Amino acid sequence: MKSYDRLVFELSREGRKGYSLPKSSWKASLSSIPGTLLRKVPLPLPQVSEPDAVRHYTCLSGMNFGVDNGFYPLGSCTMKYNPKVNEEVASLPGFASVHPLQPEDTMQGTLQIYHELCRALSAITGMAAFTLNPFAGAHGELTGLMVMRQYHMSRNDMKRTRVIVPDSAHGTNPASAAVCGLQVVQVKSTADGTIDVDDLEPLLDDTVAGIMMTNPNTLGLFETEIRRIAELVHACGGLLYYDGANMNPLLGKVRPGDMGFDIMHLNLHKTFSTPHGGGGPGAGPVGVCEALAGYLPDPAVVQDDDGRFHIVRNPHSAGRISGFMGNFSVLVKALAYIRTLGRGNIRMAGPLAVLNANYVKESLKDCYRLPVDRICKHEFVFDGLADTSSGITALDVAKRLLDFGFHSPTIYFPLLFHQSVMIEPTETESKETLDAFIDVMRRIAAEAASDPDVLRQAPHDTPVRRPDETLAATHPVLRYKI
Amino acid sequence: MSFPYFPHTDDDIRAMLDRIGAGSLDDLYSDVPDEFIFKGEFSLPEAMSEVEVRKTFSEIAGRNRQLVIFAGGGAYDHYTPAVIPYLVSRSEFQTAYTPYQSEVSQGTLRYIFEYQSMIAMLTGLDCSNASMYDGATAAAEAMLMSVACTRKKNRILLSSALLPQVIGTVMTYAKYHGIDTGLVAMDGGMTSAADLERQLASDDVAGVLVPSLNRYGIIEDLSGFAEAVHARKGLLVMYSDPSALAVLKTPGEWGADIACGDCQTLGMPLSSGGPYAGYLACRQEYVRKLPGRIVGQTSDMDGKRAYVLTLQAREQHIRREKATSNICSNQSLMALHATIYMSLMGRDGLREVNRLSYGGAHCLYERLLSTGLFEPVFDRPFLKEFVLKPSVPAGQLHGYLSDKGFFAALPTEEGLVSFCVTEKRTEEEIDALVSAIRQMPGQDGK
Q1: Minimal CA separation from B103 to chain A, in Å
Q2: Is there a domain that residue B410 lies in?
Q3: Is residue A212 within 8 Å of A164, Cβ to Cβ?
Q4: What is the pLDDT of residues A70-83, one digit of tens each?
Q5: Do B36 and A259 touch (CB under 8 A)?
Q6: How far is A470 from chain B (nearest CA, A)?
Q7: DSSP tally for chain B: helices H, then strands E
Q8: Is A244 in contact with A265 (CB distance < 8 Å)?
Q9: Residue A118 φ then ψ, to 5°
């Protein structure tokens, strides 16, 4: 398996096929379409048999590492276990065969899922209303900022075009703001990584649309000044946006709505256990406080007094942000997770994630440098090894972990440190798994002193080893050429 | 406390708290002001067992009605080979993150590279990204890209013949981004070349978005469009059904600079509207403005062929507010779905899908006209979707047919009805649909 090195194009042989379609006796033929409208260039798609295709993609899957393969302490990504019953119910034919434009009365089940998930997310976050249309976290950010702008515009408050973003924020925050036509103003962090309120205050005026915050922040630290920040931003007429990428430690414990946030997004593929899928599909629902509910994007689902569900458009809405109504099957999975947790177990999710993070942090802080030594939430950041004499980098540590069957942590983010190693062990990891990881991390720290080359050459035991990224960027090969 | 997804025993919790030096789990939240600790009861039901989850969700799914699909409007009932869900649901694909650690992500990276290659082949353009959220957002990103690729132009034009949800989404993105927009009128069910020419005269148009199969299912004749747009130094962007591009003239052949659309037609289940995936492809000279993930081929330290995420200088985690887009993911598993689909179908299979859909759609078209209950509207070539003018109100016909078990006669804004036939529909189903229409009360066409 390790030596597998084929692309599906290289398996192709003229005359093979992998499909099975019905015969038919339709009279009309494509040749009646005018030739000027038809494709003339060849279409060199592969021609493979069904078993060839199955074996090829199965071999490719063997070159991947997922949560089901092993521990995935990727900071800021919340790689928790993806329950299998969720997959099963999401693919029920009753959901899978429904066309998104079917009449409402023929898709009451679909609309019920949508409505129930909105209500559940409201209960969990303390926000008044949700849209489930955004497809991913970054899409949620963009949608939330559109709602923010729509609110100001509807009040004829047109000069609010600046949005405040902490220097430690996820890169998507400033990028989403820019796509939304907002000017980004950066606010500094203090030495402990939280927002510098003294730096924030002078930035606040009547051109501020709002502030985007992650709480806990990207160092995994709770923003203890949140009440004061909320008061200041609201006093200047701005809104508070909560980036839900770091919601997991607060799950069942703290609600963003109670902290004064007006708009937020959730990553269902993080906090609500739906698979990351190698980059998607995820879902990025956006929740808002009561005053902003009317600005959520179209379409939305409402329930009437008779219990029937309807698809509606809001006259003040920020507009349409998707073809249909989001990544529906992801929504089913998240609702199944919430139903499985129930009102009791949900209280344990956040605390156990926080327990795991602090346990790993305390067990390793003598061999890795911990810049801010206080209770963390779901994740924490080391700034490289405690003993820097070997010159071993965060990258070396990350690559060496792969040899031991662990996925790497997030490295070189946040940008506040030179050798950031960001570790997030979620609540679905056992003490034994964490102990094994801690042992390996300690062993790597020892290797840095005794045998640094083994780290610099790592990984040794993976399908490929340290690909040349510079070559890829300077001489881009972005497609197979026959 | 015991729950199947939480492995912690009481002893584990105690031992771990000891290592941390905390007395209780609550102590781990001592940094959170007490007023923000939620002390109420969550308004959620009690925990369900797996047995109950299955039962509950089956009941909810049962409240949907499975109709025989005879309409499209942006989502099409094509056949999904059995192999695809089987392979796509493999844990190693499904439970992986974005392939940052390339050494343990070669599976994901390779299929994305295959996907990009196949999209380039279908569209006749040079490069594709790793996929977008859906067709509508891919179109929005394509139009933002057209503005970024042209100098000092801040207006985009959209054909009125595009799907309404595509127009709506692009308009929303443009509104907040601060881009001026205009709609190009239709002429005989197709994008009006004359109106386009008129609107281009202002010389401020960065990009023009036109469909190849439009909202009425008509195959648009885009002769002269690229020349007209390029003469004004704008970009031509085409919204196309990727499945249909196996037989229809490609964006590359029409002279388009950017192509976008929805991969749903590549065998993806309707799934109540998602997940699908958008595609976005462009000519080589614009690749550094292309948003989203891109996978490139390189070699590893032993000289072996390897794949990595590349050209990341475009992206938000490096460029922050100066990035080409805020998108930091793709619809990866759906791109895998599309890739396996295209591998299995190949050139001949895709052609056959189009041949069957075309044959069925034209059969239904003739059969409906022969009932005397519809009038033809446009005399233009169509592929698998078409509109007719019904003799009864469109909404009434649509509702009646759904009661009879069909999703058909989808009303348009103009009071027309739209039908679609794919390779999954049989002659018997067409017979049943036509006979249901003939029996609709209040008609005289019996």
Answers
A1: 5
A2: yes
A3: yes
A4: 999 999 999 999 99
A5: yes
A6: 9
A7: 14, 17
A8: yes
A9: -55, -45
Its sign, for the CA torsion B217, B219, B221, B227, is positive
Q: How far is CA A286 from the centre of its chain?
A: 13
Range(s) of the domain holding residue B299: 83-340
User: Of B41, B70, B97, B302, which to mutate for an interface test with A (greatest number of A Cβ within 10 Å)?
Assistant: B97
Contact A220, A380 (CB under 8 A): yes
**Angle at B396 (CA atoms; ends B395, B401), nearest 5 degrees:** 100
Number of domains in chain B: 3
- Alpha carbons A362 and A220: distance in angstroms, whole number: 14
Point out the domain boundary residue: B323, B340, B357: B340
Residue with tokens 């798994």: A433
CB contact under 8 Å between B20 and A362, yes or no, is yes
Which amino acid, residue B445? G
Question: What are the helix (H) ranges across A155-303?
Answer: 172-179, 197-200, 226-235
Q: What is the ipTM of this complex?
A: 0.97
Task: Give the C-alpha separation, B253 to B247, whole Å.
Answer: 12
Say whether B97 and A7 touch across the interface (CB within 8 A).
no
Give me the residue from B77, B137, B381 closest to A34, CB to CB.
Answer: B381
State the helix-helix crossing angle for A431-450 and A328-364, rounded to 10 degrees: 50
B342: closest chain A residue by CA: A45
Residues in A touching B22 (Cβ below 8 Å): 358, 375
pLDDT greater than 60 at residue B187: yes
CA distance B324 to chain A (A): 8
Q: What is the DSSP string of B324-388?
A: S-S-----HHHHHHHHHHHHHHHHHHHHHHHHHHHHHHHHHHHHHHHTTSEEE---S-BSSEEEE
Residue B61 domain flag: no
What are the helix (H) ranges across B205-331?
225-231, 251-254, 316-319
The answer to whether residue B62 sits within a structural domain is no
Q: Which of B140, B275, B177 is nearest to A132 (CA)?
A: B275
* Spatial distance between the Cα atoms of A356 and A428, rounded to a whole number of angstroms: 9
Are A267 and A246 in contact by the 8 Å Cβ rule? The answer is no
pLDDT bracket for residue A191 (50, 70, 90): confident
Would you state the CATH architecture of domain A85-340? Answer: 3-Layer(aba) Sandwich (3.40)
| Residue B425's CATH number | 3.90.1150.10
- Domain co-membership, B273 together with B318: yes
Q: Which residues are within 8 A (CB) of A458 and not within 5 positions of it... i.e. 6 or more apart?
A: A396, A399, A400, A402, A403
Instruction: List chain B residues with CB under 8 Å of A98.
Output: 64, 66, 270-272
Tell me the C-alpha distance between A145 and A140, whole Å: 8
Residue where one domain finishes, among candidates B340, B364, B381: B340
Cα-Cα end-to-end distance for chain A = 25
* Selection from A109, A318, A121 nearest residue B42 by Cα: A121
Are B169 and A320 a contacting pair at CB < 8 A? yes
At A104-150, the pLDDT tens digits run 999 999 999 999 999 999 999 999 999 999 999 999 999 999 999 99
Mean pLDDT calculated for residue range B388-400: 97
Burial class (CB in 10 A: 0-12, 13-18, 19+), A60: buried
Show the 3-state SS of A204-239. CCCCEEEEEECCCCCCCCCCCCHHHHHHHHHHCCCE
What does the buried/exposed string (b/e) look like for A443-480 if buried means 16 or more CB atoms within 10 Å of the residue's CB?
A: ebbebbeeeeeebbebbeebbbbbbbbebbbeebbbbb
Show the tokens assigned to A125: 């976050």
Q: Nearest to residue B114, comparing CAs of B283, B297, B291? A: B297
Chain A residues inside the 8 Å CB shell of B35: 227, 258
Mean pLDDT, residues B274-290: 97
- Inform me whether the pLDDT recorded for B446 exceeds 60: no
Answer whether residue B1 is part of any domain.
Answer: no
Task: Check whether residue B150 and residue B282 sit in a common domain.
Answer: yes
Q: State the smallest CA–CA distance between residue B393 and chain A in angstroms.
A: 16
